[in-house]
Design goal:
134 residues, mainly alpha, 5 helices, elongated
Length: 134
């Protein structure tokens, strides 16, 4: 196929090159011939290439962003985590000597509105008979 095209002068290449050279500001137009070769792999190389491809696909799947979580479920998790932190702080205070404390929450994930809800849940009065307290 290439040989026939070459004998035909790579038509319509000459016409295309003439039009490109006619564009104002274009000073040089070059062409290049390249060759495609079939690469033959042995079974061992094929197996390695397949394993590498599978590993890359697995890594890409693991790195894929998680779909956004339902806001109602997220809020429930934030409030639950805040409540648990509040109970922990209250327990430490009940043992005595607590003037200052430092705590952290994971569920808000940097969302300030959810962080405020979490802190509000920490400040809720807790019921000692409630199951979540234990």
């Amino acid at each position: 196929a290439f040989g026939e095209w070459e004998k035909a002068g790579f038509a319509p290449e000459a016409e295309f090159l003439a039009k490109v050279k006619g564009i104002k500001g274009v000073e040089t137009v070059e062409t290049q011939t390249y060759t495609l070769e079939e690469v033959k792999l042995n079974k061992k190389d094929i197996k390695k290439a397949m394993e590498k491809k599978e590993a890359e696909q697995a890594k890409a799947a693991a790195d894929a962003p998680k779909p956004p979580e339902d806001p109602a479920k997220k809020l429930k998790k934030v409030i639950k985590e805040g409540g648990k932190r509040g109970v922990e702080i209250e327990g430490a205070a009940d043992m005595g000597g607590l003037q200052f404390f430092c705590t952290s929450v994971d569920e808000p994930e940097g969302n300030m509105d959810l962080l405020v809800k979490s802190v509000a849940a920490m400040n809720e009065k807790s019921d000692p008979t409630e199951e979540e307290r234990k």
